[in-house]
Write a structure and sequence with these properties.
267 residues; mainly alpha; two-stranded antiparallel sheet; two-stranded antiparallel ribbon; 61% helix; 7% strand
Length: 267
């Protein structure tokens, strides 16, 4: 009878062979994942995702844009809720402008976090919660302005939208826009705003990207005709300039009025 003899293998060699087998299996799995789509490493875990096609990327972008539009649209209903809370008889004080008072509180909160114009969700709730607005409504309102989900809201855009609710249907739109000019001028003592701020102010009622682009072109054209062609960062627009541009461009004013009427919920 034949007898087979196996050479003696050291413990170190056995360990090396075991590691080699594990590496072979890992490479085999990696090849299979690579054939199915992209691969990447996160910590020490192998993960994969299917390759993005042009069609899927476009669909994803459209979904994201639709979600942003929905979050932005819902702010008008919640803003009316806040406006009614501010105007409640139990809160009214003689000689106190409730919108100016709220704006001052928001500005103070911005300064405390070291940011001139932006407030986070927590700071916003601490202030708005004092006017008896439910947290759910306040969160929806905040999300309507923080459409990119960066946990930042521009308090100028917020208070300008709130200002539109005052005397809606009776106060001329020009008067509303000129009052909004002062909110943007809060930290400036020159009496002039950047052209970019004027564009943002006039886009307050624009919810769709196309509407924003249309007003961007209208506003820049009006400023260039009155003040000369300059960068959007030029600080040269006074309240008198804004009033003159609105008077000279009735189509632009009518466009903003239409947007406001479309967004304004029933009182």
């Amino acid at each position: 009878r034949s007898v087979s003899f196996h050479p003696r293998v050291s413990a170190q060699e056995l360990k090396r062979q075991k590691m080699a087998r594990k590496e072979s299996k890992r490479k085999s799995r990696s090849v299979k994942l690579e054939q199915r789509g992209l691969k990447y490493w996160s910590a020490c875990t192998l993960m994969y995702s299917q390759s993005e096609t042009e069609q899927s990327l476009k669909a994803s972008a459209q979904r994201a844009q639709k979600e942003r539009a929905m979050r932005s649209k819902m702010k008008w209903k919640e803003m009316l809720h806040l406006y009614n809370c501010l105007r409640a008889p139990t809160r009214r004080q003689a000689g106190v402008d409730e919108i100016d008072q709220l704006y001052g509180q928001l500005r103070k909160a911005c300064a405390e976090r070291g940011n001139i114009n932006n407030i986070d969700r927590e700071g916003f709730w601490r202030i708005v919660g004092q006017v008896d607005m439910p947290m759910t409504s306040a969160n929806r309102l905040y999300s309507g302005f923080d459409t990119e989900r960066r946990d930042e809201m521009d308090v100028r855009q917020f208070v300008c939208t709130l200002r539109l609710f005052r005397k809606y249907g009776t106060e001329p739109l020009t008067d509303k826009l000129l009052a909004m000019f002062d909110f943007y001028l809060y930290h400036d003592h020159t009496g002039k705003l950047r052209r970019a701020d004027i564009v943002a102010l006039l886009q307050t009622c624009a919810e769709k990207e196309l509407d924003k682009e249309v007003l961007d072109r209208m506003a820049q054209k009006a400023m260039n005709e009155r003040l000369g062609t300059k960068s959007l960062w030029a600080v040269d627009v006074t309240k008198e300039d804004l009033a003159a541009m609105l008077a000279d461009n009735p189509f632009m004013l009518n466009t903003i009025q239409r947007q406001l009427d479309d967004n304004m919920p029933a009182h």
